[in-house]
Amino acid sequence: MVTTTELATEAIVADAAARTGVGPESFQFLANLDRLASSLSSEARLTPSGRRAVAGALSAALVVQARLAQLIERHPEITGWPVPRPVFVTGLLRTGTTLVHNLLAHHPGLRVPALWELMNPAEDRGDTERHRRLADEAQDYVDEYNRIAPDLRHIHYLDARRPDECHRLLGNTFASMVYEMRYRIPSYSGWLRERDLTEEYRYHRRQLQALLWREADGPVVLKCPFHLWSVAELVAVYPDARIIQLHRDPARTVPSTCSLCVAVREARSDQVDRHEIGRQWLDRIGQVIGGVTAARELVPSGQLLDVRYADLVADPIGTVGRICDFIGVPLTGPAESAMRTYLRENSQTKHGVHRYRPEDFGLDGADLNRRFARYRQTFDC
């Protein structure tokens, strides 16, 4: 039970220490937490319930750190556990990465962690009753989040037992772009964009090792658009990674990203400035597009596959077949059948229609078309 509503490092650390029985010296990345908590406290315009929820989430990240350390103390072999040829699905936000991820999750030859696992990476083997309880608790979190952020369901559908983004692992280091998606924290955003995240990605890997130690069934597949901003660090920590990069016209993805940002921020704040969000994501996406060529050159030859959103939508099974060839895991008959069932049962509008306009965020459609013409031409999207 979270006992603090203070967005101060000392209070959050004390809360996590009380929950885990470890000393404050056991926690890591506290300088990152200090940056984040300070920005949240002074800039995020959180509601009282939002402050309580955010303090709880930050404390929970420290709890994961403590549990991981305790698990490794019992099972030191985790630190050497192999992570062979991991697969990372990335691309600008709103480019079809979620669809690719969910389809690959239906391949029995691939290991695709579910949301509840990413929320609880430091779990022991064999305790199926505890794992079921953790999955139920994660679903309670999803249901409550959908209640307070009702637009999220038809923008980015969440289910505790389905795959989700591995920003949850990086988030436990308090250095992830997911925080600037969820909250208005401009000073933290400015700090983060200048930071080298290699150490944070090493901790991402350590948590992934714990997940695979608990259960490993083939190459692991992870997904997060924010990896696109940290390709250098990703490749440094996962040198044999296979990267699948989705491409879609940024003139469409920028306003769609803004719409997602509004939906999640309204869960914790009643002062959400849509035009400010438009400026933020136009800048952030422009930044990564401007450096996309240099970043791609860091990926070893043969380890990056480009996928167009238009191809994915037109022929999802054929596109995933090409991805499976790239990964080196054939698209078998049973896997294809499971994927086709998923597509039948999960239409793009099953959970509602996502409607948005550039003008809602102070953006101009013609300007977006001009601004991103080179990217659209380079990747034929």
Q: What number is the mean pLDDT?
A: 93
Net shape: globular
CATH architecture of the largest domain: 3-Layer(aba) Sandwich
CATH class of the largest domain: Alpha Beta
How far is it from the N-terminal to the C-terminal residue, by CA?
Answer: 48 Å
What letter string, H or E per element, gives the SSE order? HHHEHHHHHHHEHEHHHEHHHHH
Oligomeric state as shown = single chain
CATH superfamily of the largest domain: P-loop containing nucleotide triphosphate hydrolases
Radius of gyration: 20 Å
Q: Counting H and I runs of at least 4 residues, what is the number of helices?
A: 19
Secondary structure elements and their pairing?
Elements: H1 9-20, H2 30-43, H3 48-74, E1 87-91, H4 97-104, H5 115-119, H6 128-148, H7 167-171, H8 178-182, H9 186-193, H10 198-214, E2 221-223, H11 231-237, E3 242-247, H12 250-265, H13 274-290, H14 292-296, E4 304-308, H15 309-314, H16 316-327, H17 333-345, H18 365-371, H19 373-378
Parallel strand pairs: 1-2, 1-3, 3-4
